Amino acid sequence: MLKGVSLSAQKGDVITLIGGSGSGKSTFLRCMNLLEVPDRGSVEIDGLHVETTSKRGKTGGVSDLRTLRELRKQFGMVFQNFNLWPHMTAIGNVMDPLRAVHGVPKAEAYERALEAISQVGIEERKDYFPSQLSGGQQQRVAIARALAVDPEILLFDEPTSALDPELVSEVLRVIRKLADSGRTMVLVTHEMAFARDVSSEICFLRGGYIEHRGSPDEVFSKAAPEACQKFLHGMIT
């Protein structure tokens, strides 16, 4: 359960959430685009503001459903388990939210999907179905799907946790490339070396709180709280 957490990001920031299992990292991430609706709080991005309440009612606990729909369009999310449609090709999966959510005409959606697939380096697999792709390739399709809608913020929920070790590096290379290009991102990961290298800020969560936050050097220093140091020592050794 999250308790009084808050986060702000500027354009181009890469913020990484770290912590043990059950600390609230993935829940916090899902609260940002309101896939999880907190009992109390608010989300604001680019002038769009949504308040939430524990009184669910007809609007599901949010102050304005129309604004919620517009707010969600500002986020692209990459999940642990890819969540690709098995009956669609790679490019079909990338086109789907463009057509279904954003109402982009088919020809334009194809071009945007092709560009996104090229960005993640799998254009030669665009006509393959998910079952014909490796786990790393499927996750790159999922990243392309998030990129294609041109979101303000990309959210990554442990994007390498479902991959075999030899496939992790190919996905991390894509995420690093996006960070280097100035994409604003919030990332949940257990890849500590990667987090230290790519993040502008790291937040350590424990028991539903952000117990420590700062630059990578601050979080990985001996001045960090004992619980944070113990967590990092356990992850790195």
Supply the key terms:
237 residues, alpha/beta, six-stranded mixed β-sheet, two-stranded antiparallel ribbon, 9 helices
Write structural notes for this entry.
By secondary structure, the protein is of the alpha/beta class. Helices cover 39% and strands 18% of the residues. The strands form 2 sheets. Strands 4-5-6-1-7-8 form a 6-stranded mixed sheet, with helices on both faces. A two-stranded antiparallel ribbon has the order 2-3. α3 (90-100) packs across α4 and α4 packs across α5 (135-148). The longest helix is centred in the last third of the chain and has 16 residues, at 165-180. The model has no long low-confidence stretch (mean pLDDT 93).
Sequence-ordered SSE layout with sheet pairings:
Elements: E1 14-18, H1 25-32, E2 40-45, E3 48-53, H2 65-72, E4 75-78, H3 90-100, H4 106-119, H5 135-148, E5 153-157, H6 165-180, E6 185-188, H7 192-198, E7 201-206, E8 209-214, H8 216-219, H9 226-236
Parallel strand pairs: 1-6, 1-7, 4-5, 5-6
Antiparallel strand pairs: 2-3, 7-8
